[in-house]
């Protein structure tokens, strides 16, 4: 059984170490010229960030550390070495630098009036779904309901369980990232972008992955993988086809990081690369989709109705997620692991609060 006290101590130590690394980057590496020299100075930071989750055995705490530090923070610091990404220009204070580096947040930029007029007008259906079903209390309630459904898992078909996993992962991510955004707004006064923009309304894979699902990951991968790959590919195969290897490379890196975070950091085993296969498939399909859009725009043929596109995209995303991405979660009984850890952590926190309250009452 997990030792909650030891795990929380390890979690705190890892994050203190990460803050020390970022302080070094802020005060020392930022003074070096951008490029190779600054990148070399940051190698110790990369090493410490990547091994940080290995010091935690808790599934929940290692997932937070693996996603936040080993993936997002590392990639943000790589971009920072070349004066790119969310850490450029250099934030005014160390607190802002650490918050942007460690938290999965995207700071709002001031869009042009033209962009505002074309992107901020919600459809009636979108507005209704957002108001009724996607408010924060509704998501918390939905999370609670799904969590209690797992006790009936043995009576459900495996595909039904996988669909529940899909919904649960979305709700958990949305709640977690919303809380991080609230923390960033409270500590630093940032105006933060929502990390999920109604992904259930996507009408293309490019729309789903690039503009609606987990925006911070898309932003980080765009600056660290997509843009450099497209720049290099444009010299090798020409700008016309440079997007193709850039999209594929982005999805390959995303898949590899999913496998590393899940298998290495959370499950403490060698990756099986099944998640990478899922993202490679989506990368190939998105690249083909972009090419089809280019050819369709050059011809004056009829356009499909958006509802048809929505059905096709949601069917493909849900189908491949159920059959590829979430199979390891079902195989490894992740719901049981998470439920047990939630119970242990909850009891630990409750015990500490009771002890603190007792000391306060006795002290008075």
Automatic annotation (TrEMBL):
MF terms in GO: O-acyltransferase activity
Membrane protein topology class: Multi-pass membrane protein
Chief place of localization: membrane
Organism domain of life: Eukaryota
Domain Wax synthase: from-to ranges: 193-275
GO terms for biological process, alphabetical: lipid metabolic process
Family to which the UniProt record says this protein belongs: Belongs to the wax synthase family.
The protein's name in its UniProt record: 1,2-diacyl-sn-glycerol:acetyl-CoA acetyltransferase
Species of provenance: Euonymus maackii (Maack's spindle tree)
Gene, per the UniProt record: DAct
């Amino acid at each position: 059984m997990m030792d909650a006290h030891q795990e929380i101590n390890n979690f705190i130590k890892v994050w203190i170490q990460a803050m020390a690394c970022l302080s070094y980057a802020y005060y020392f590496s930022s003074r070096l010229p951008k490029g190779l020299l600054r990148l070399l100075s940051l190698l110790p930071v990369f090493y410490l960030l990547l091994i940080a989750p290995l010091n935690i055995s808790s599934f929940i705490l290692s997932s937070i550390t693996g996603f936040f530090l080993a993936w997002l923070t590392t990639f943000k610091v790589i971009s920072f070495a070349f004066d790119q990404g969310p850490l450029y220009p250099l934030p005014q204070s160390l607190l802002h630098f650490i918050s942007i580096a460690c938290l999965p947040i995207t700071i709002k930029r001031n869009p042009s009036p033209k962009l505002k007029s074309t992107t901020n007008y919600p459809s009636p259906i979108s507005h209704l779904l957002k108001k009724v079903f996607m408010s924060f209390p509704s998501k918390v309630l939905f999370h609670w309901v799904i969590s209690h459904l797992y006790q009936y898992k043995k009576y459900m078909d495996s595909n039904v369980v996988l669909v529940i996993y899909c919904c649960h992962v979305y709700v958990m991510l949305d709640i977690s990232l919303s809380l991080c955004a609230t923390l960033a707004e409270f500590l630093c006064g940032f105006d933060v972008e929502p990390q999920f923009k109604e992904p259930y309304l996507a009408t293309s894979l490019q729309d789903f992955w690039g503009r609606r699902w987990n925006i911070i990951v898309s932003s980080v991968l765009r600056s660290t993988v997509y843009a450099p790959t497209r720049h290099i590919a444009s010299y090798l195969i020409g700008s016309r086809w440079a997007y193709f290897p850039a999209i594929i490379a982005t999805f390959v890196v995303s898949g590899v990081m999913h496998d590393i975070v899940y298998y290495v950091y959370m499950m403490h085993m060698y990756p099986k690369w099944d998640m990478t296969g899922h993202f490679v498939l989506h990368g190939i399909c998105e690249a083909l989709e972009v090419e089809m859009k280019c050819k369709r725009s050059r011809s004056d043929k009829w356009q499909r109705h958006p509802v048809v596109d929505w059905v096709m995209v949601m069917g493909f995303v849900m189908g491949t997620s159920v059959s590829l991405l979430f199979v390891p979660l079902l195989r490894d009984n992740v719901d049981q692991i998470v439920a047990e850890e939630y119970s242990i952590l909850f009891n630990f926190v409750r015990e500490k609060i009771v002890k603190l309250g007792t000391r306060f009452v006795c002290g008075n």
